[in-house]
Write a structure and sequence with these properties.
Oligomer: single chain
Strand order of the largest sheet: 2-10-9-4-5-6
Shape: globular
Helix content: under 10%
Number of strands: 10
Distance between the termini: 39 Å
Structural class: mainly beta
Strand content: 35-45%
Length: 113
């Protein structure tokens, strides 16, 4: 069973940056588009970004120009570089394929002064 592992979250001030990582030990992510999602407190999970096997990227409008998704196929790792963070970016961030497999624990991003 696929188990995604997210890391890199933390507490950051508004305007700051974080770089999230996504791996799936034992699963060949390289053949799949990998998606980042987030779930803010008391809100539904929302899609944030995707990167295709060939490097095509797509973003949620509100993160365009601030977030950058990338992948390193040698390491089977997908990254989400988040810059100019805002309080409304506070959420638990998850990665997955689509259709989704089992959800990992995610990584908490808190943007607060």
């Amino acid at each position: 069973q696929v188990q995604f592992v997210e890391s890199g979250g933390g507490l950051v001030q508004p305007g700051g940056s974080l770089n999230l990582s996504c791996t799936a030990p034992g699963f060949n992510c390289n053949s799949y588009s990998i998606h980042w999602y987030r779930q803010a407190p008391a809100k539904q999970r929302e899609w944030v970004a995707l990167v295709s096997p060939g490097g095509f990227t797509k973003y949620l409008d509100v993160v365009k120009g601030r977030f950058t998704i990338s992948r390193d196929n040698r390491l089977s790792t997908v990254y989400l570089q988040m810059d100019r963070l805002k309080s409304e970016d506070t959420a638990v961030y998850h990665c997955n394929i689509n259709p989704a497999r089992a959800w990992g624990r995610g990584t908490l991003v808190t943007v607060s002064s």
